[in-house]
């Protein structure tokens, strides 16, 4: 059998680190995906057919939508991360293999979920994927979650023009406005607290080439939080490139979950 190449994590600028967090054999790897603001677990269901056979997809639902539509919204992002952590703990054991993925708001939640799982005694993830979000230590302003509807609407449309249909349909607006405001509140009121150590597994940061909501500095700063190599992967598109170019993302996830042949 030909040995698989070592999992080399490349950093922009030519530096590289060697991380050996890859797994051996064909044991399952659990993939936990966290949605963006206003999104739901359903956005990840269509990934299943394109994931490798060893990946087990677990889209994590946020309170106030989908199967959790009757649950009250979270009080804070930390509250949300705690609830999601408990859900993961109910799903897998401490020594099982897993990957975390989150887009936009989900990138912050995936980052905080990583630390909560490690504090709960869980092993390092195989990989941490953060997508479409600024590094956690950056300021989250402006504050718009409590602004009048028209001002809030214009800000949301700055992220995604496709959301216009929500604001032009009375029934859709009735459902999505409180969800969006709650999610924006979680992100806007989030305050980063320094961690005792950096993330101990390989990290990949996805960013849209035309995402006007992020600066290059805010994306590259994720490197400050990785202790095992951080790769920046640019994807064609705006903030919601995840909807139009998921193939590139899924390919990276499949590669991260591929076994390392050591014998």
From TrEMBL:
Species this protein is from: Paenibacillus spiritus
Q: Which InterPro entries match?
A: AB_hydrolase_fold, TEII, Thioesterase
Gene Ontology biological-process annotations: lipid biosynthetic process
Domain Thioesterase residues, every copy = 30-255
Q: What is this protein called?
A: Thioesterase
Query: What does UniProt give as the signal peptide span?
Result: none
- Residue ranges of the TM segments: none
Database matches in Pfam families: Thioesterase
* Similarity comment: Belongs to the thioesterase family.
Judging by the UniProt lineage, the source's domain of life is Bacteria
